[in-house]
Amino acid sequence: MSLQPLSEQAGYPSVVKLPYRDVRKFLEQIAWCVDHTATLIRAYAQLVKLAPSEVEAEEVKTMMQQEKKQFTLLESLYRELMGGEPMARPEPHDFTTYEDGLKYAVSLERVAIRHYRDTYLLTPSMKVRDIFFYALSDGTEHIVGLLMLQLGKPHQTDI
Known about the structure:
The chain is mainly alpha-helical. It is 67% helix and 0% strand. The protein is elongated, with a radius of gyration of 17 Å. InterPro entries: Ferritin-like_SF.
């Protein structure tokens, strides 16, 4: 997905004039999403190390790669809207077992999905909505994958 400047979208002459329903909240949500996605990437990296099999490690790696793609999209959106680089502040995690890491990742994804939904609803911009719809879809797929891993039944998706 390529990012075109928001100002190039039909009907929106300038980024500043986009009719976000609550601009301050929208920008806070973007910053939160950058931080949270960085937290997910860090958690998935630790899960890969703790995975009991190569199949499970590969499934978690796939999720991590999808999060990295989402992070890149969010970084670009942040730069475009804020005019500077985001300072990602991932939260530390304290899990030491694979099982605890899976539970932690499920809880992170659940929180992310709610935030992505709320951010999606804060703007009429189709480009921004596409980014958050993509994140919602991946988050849902990740929860299913993580729950399957908890059951000991990796399903290795190629989404």
